[in-house]
Structure formats: C-alpha cells, structure tokens
Design brief:
Layout (H helix, E strand, L loop, with lengths): L7 H14 L4 E2 L9 E2 L1 H12 L2
Antiparallel strand pairs: 1-2
Length: about 55
C-alpha cells in the first residue's frame, strides 16, 4: 500500500478505493457522486447476532 498524502479528499478517496479492493467496504450503488458504502461483514455479524435473540 502506498503512503497517503495529507490532502483530505485524495486521502479519503485512496482509503475508500483500498477498502473496496480488499473487501472491507461494498459500494451501495453505482452512482458517480455522493456514493455510499456498507461495511458488509460487520452488518452480517450484527444481523446474525440479532437473529439469535
């Protein structure tokens, strides 16, 4: 992984891209702007835990 720069937009974009590539985040839609992401593995854990209650 390359070193991140201090520019906040570029840094955030690099982090999001990296997290999507290594399956930490999943894009919620194919929109070009105002994207949202899901931490799917975490939500799966929560859903499983609440289904057991």
């Amino acid at each position: 992984m390359e070193l991140l720069e201090a520019n906040s937009y570029n840094t955030a974009q690099k982090l999001l891209t990296t997290f999507v590539e290594i399956d930490i985040l999943v894009p919620d839609s194919n929109r070009e702007r105002n994207k949202s992401y899901t931490f799917r593995k975490y939500l799966d854990i929560l859903e499983t835990a609440f289904l057991d209650i």
